Amino acid sequence: GAVVSQHPSWVICKSGTSVKIECRSLDFQATTMFWYRQFPKQSLMLMATSNEGSKATYEQGVEKDKFLINHASLTLSTLTVTSAHPEDSSFYICSASGLGGFDTDTQYFGPGTRLTVL
Amino acid sequence: GENVEQHPSTLSVQEGDSAVIKCTYSDSASNYFPWYKQELGKRPQLIIDIRSNVGEKKDQRIAVTLNKTAKHFSLHITETQPEDSAVYFCAQGNTGFQKLVFGTGTRLLVSP
């Protein structure tokens, strides 16, 4: 149980284009989803917290107009990196917590999306 | 503010030895402390967690201890195996807010 999927697993794009990453909770309702980025050999840095049906809460220093987050349903959240640049290249990981018989405090992580911007 | 210090950054042990990783936090309101294991290029996986109403929790070869007074918590792995090799992250949270603050990670290498 508590499976979180993420798509795509990797993406390569040209500078200036936008990329959308999907995060889905497959067997539970995710009332809250989190988006992290992780640089090589570094820790997970929280970018934003999203609750279904409401605007995401961004961490300090994260540009909300650049990293658009939509949490339209209890099983799906999307992160769109707009006008991507090489410095946006990173490993993006989502996590979800919520209802369905699981511990509501526990975050279950997706497999991550490796973004490379040329 | 929220801050989690994790030590050591790297840890090399021989198979069968014990490994201990320690984290220190600053937010006295924190009451939820999970530990995640992340293999290279893969997702973090929860291995054990502890809440502030207990001082120790054990699951087979893995245990976590919590000292709320000193604001530190530790992961203990006994009888280590090569497959325990990974990066381990501690985190602190506050039930209800759900947001987690992660430590800097410990790279554990278990040599056969």
Describe the protein's architecture and organization:
The complex is a heterodimer of chains A (118) and B (112). Chain A is mainly beta. Chain A contains no helices and 11 strands. Chain A has strands at 4-7, 10-13, 19-25, 29-38, 45-51, 57-58, 67-73, 76-81, 90-99, 108-109, 113-117. Chain B is mainly β. Helix content of chain B is 0%, strand content 56%. Chain B is built from no helices and 11 strands. In chain B, the strands form 2 sheets. In chain B, strands 2, 4, 5, 9, 10 and 11 form a 6-stranded mixed β-sheet that branches. The radius of gyration of chain B is 13 Å and the shape is globular. The mean pLDDT of chain B is 93. Chains A and B meet through β5 and β10 of A and β4, β5 and β10 of B.
Instruction: Describe the global form of chain B.
Output: globular
**Total number of helices of chain B:** 0
Series of H and E elements of chain B = EEEEEEEEEEE
Q: What is the number of beta strands of chain B?
A: 11
Mean pLDDT metric of chain B:
93
Question: What percent of the residues of chain A sit in helical stretches (DSSP H or I)?
Answer: under 10%
Radius of gyration of chain B: 13 Å
Q: What are the low-pLDDT stretches of chain A, counting only 5+ consecutive residues below 50?
A: none
Structural class of chain A: mainly beta
| Beta fraction of chain A | over 45%
Distance between the termini of chain B: 41 Å
Helix content of chain B: under 10%
Q: How many helices of chain A?
A: 0
Mean pLDDT of chain A: 91
